[in-house]
Amino acid sequence: MVSDRAYLKGARVGAGLERLRAEVARLLDIFRSGGAVLVEPEALQPAEVLLDLYGEEIRARAFMASDDRGEMMLRPDFTVPIVRLHMDSGAEPARYAYCGPVWRKQEAGSKRAREYLQAGFEVFESGDPARSDAEVMALIARALDGAPVDFVTGDMGLVLAAIDALATNPARKAALRRHVWRPAKFHALLRRYGVEHAGLVERRAAMILARDEGRLPAMAAAAGPAIGLRTLEDIDWRAGRLAIEAATPALSAGEVDLLEAVLGVEAPSGAALDRYRDLSAGMPGLRAAVDRFAARLDALEAAGLDAAALPFQASFGRTALEYYDGFVFGAVAPGRPDLPAIANGGRYDALTRVLGRGRGIPAVGAIIRPEALVALTEGME
Description:
Layout: H1 14-33, E1 37-38, E2 44-46, H2 47-54, E3 64-67, E4 70-74, H3 79-89, E5 94-103, E6 115-124, H4 129-143, E7 150-155, H5 156-164, H6 170-178, H7 183-193, H8 197-203, H9 205-212, H10 216-222, H11 232-247, H12 253-263, E8 266-268, H13 269-280, H14 287-302, E9 311-313, E10 327-332, E11 343-347, H15 349-355, E12 363-368, H16 370-377
Parallel strand pairs: 1-5
Antiparallel strand pairs: 2-4, 3-4, 5-6, 6-12, 7-10, 8-9, 10-11, 11-12
């Protein structure tokens, strides 16, 4: 399961390879102690599945191939392959452990590895999600015990609940949810729906009026020869969407400020919970997510962690692959900018419903990067 290559620093030989193998064996033993079954999903995954989930943007991050089965993708991480494996044939509840390489494209000149190991632990289990979240994080903390790492936590469920609580139409909420993992695009949309709404309506008024009066074909013809693949039907559909947007009231400044406040919380978890309780007074739709946050802190405390002191950042997890929809956490090595995050994980209930074609199960998991952990702890014996 562990190849003769390490993927953080290139090839390993001799003692370096032996240490890496020993570290992987140690991690898998810990994961198995949590009741996990060892699995090894296929390295090549159907590209269609990942493209449907993440859009064409995933091509910039993944290695593509094709054969008689169609377009394939070298797995960019393990979560989607593990969910596919479970939803296709797994019994419930189930726990899985794994270790193997993943592949991600990097920008020219980047020192980040294109191929590296991930060792992970995944839990598919109905019942008490707070307890499962706490169990997974506690197991990762046990696996990293003694390593010089700092943990950070977040909660995508709070962010998504705040979006759903906005007094606006479903199309806007869907757009904000779709781009919540792209902060720059997300905040541009929020401005467009709020303070910039009137100006955008004014600039697009001519196109909307032309569509309403049946003059859109003439307007398009007057603009000159068609460039690109967009058809007149595409233009008409877009103009229709603009008309709906123009007729939708702008988000109030208060709503935008409240959503920005939800996204801006950064504090120890106990203080963050108090802040969210205050914010929920002005956004009742946030209360259920705040209650889940409180229950998880209780579960983390019961699992032996100092829950109230755990650093919380509402923005944490917003630039990861877009499947986390609840609790998220990571472990980073302070003072080691040369290393990626040593571990990260979170809850991804919605992903199981997508890959299960409507049949889902609550799920949470995490990965550790063995090579990064070895590099961090070398010389600490």
